[in-house]
Design brief:
The chain has 215 residues and is α+β, with helices and mostly antiparallel strands. 47% of the residues lie in helices and 20% in strands. The chain contains 5 helices and 9 strands. Strands 5, 6, 7, 8 and 9 form a 5-stranded mixed β-sheet that branches. Strand 6 (123-130) and strand 7 (136-141) form a beta hairpin. Helix 1 runs antiparallel to helix 2 (54-80). The model is unreliable at 1-18 (pLDDT under 50).
Length: 215
């Protein structure tokens, strides 16, 4: 009697024990959209109920359309945002910052920093990744991913972590880790935003004053 040899059965085993995929805090999207809505509400009321001169009405409408586009972009980016860790790399796809994909072999150490803005009563934790040469690799914000999310990333990466003993103001944080500054935190971006806001406000005042004088 011929005995047929059975092919050994291979059981699929996930080789990575610390795979991680997490999303931003849902409350963040509500806060961002609510802020934009509150900013747009006075403009919408002015456009509908206040008889504005035509140039000023066009300007207000353009600002409202820009805010609507911004809201759409934020919602789309928020749904795609994630932090994922596998055996090969960590990928940080943020809401407003370009995606950073870093090989795990390049991560030498992590630094955990507590920062605060105008008030020290509202601290935020920041997790920074650095290479052996000291190059900045990524930044994960507790305000976006939550403190529990930062703890999960630390556990998944299993790399040496240094926690600063004292909280830093945002100004001190940017001076100490200048490469970790996001594009919207740079002085040039803030200056351009202030200049555009001042230009729009000045145009609105000039146009409104001219309309009142004509009437």
């Amino acid at each position: 009697m011929q005995v047929r040899e059975r092919t050994p059965r291979v059981t699929s085993v996930t080789p990575y024990e610390h795979d991680l995929v997490m999303r931003p805090r849902p409350a963040l999207l509500r806060t961002m959209t609510l802020t934009i809505a509150l900013s747009a509400a006075p403009l919408a009321v002015a456009l509908v109920w206040v008889p504005l001169p035509l140039p000023l009405s066009v300007l207000v409408l353009a600002v409202l359309l820009a805010l609507a586009v911004l809201t759409t972009v934020i919602v789309v980016r928020f749904r795609a945002a994630s932090v994922s860790v596998d055996a090969g790399c960590i990928s940080v796809r943020s809401v407003v910052v370009r995606t950073a994909s870093v090989p795990r072999s390049a991560i030498d150490r992590l630094v955990l920093v507590t920062t605060y803005g105008p008030s020290i009563d509202h601290p935020t934790r920041e997790l920074l990744g650095f290479s052996a040469e000291g190059a900045h690799l990524f930044r994960i914000r507790g305000a976006v991913w939550g403190d529990a999310g930062i703890a999960r990333v630390i556990q998944a990466l299993d790399v040496q972590v240094t926690e600063l003993p004292k909280p830093l103001s945002l100004a001190d944080f940017h001076r100490r880790y200048p490469a970790s500054r996001a594009w919207y935190e740079r002085r040039q971006t803030v200056a351009w935003a202030a200049a555009v806001a001042a230009l729009l406000l000045g145009a609105a005042l000039v146009t409104g004053t001219a309309g009142l004088l004509d009437s």
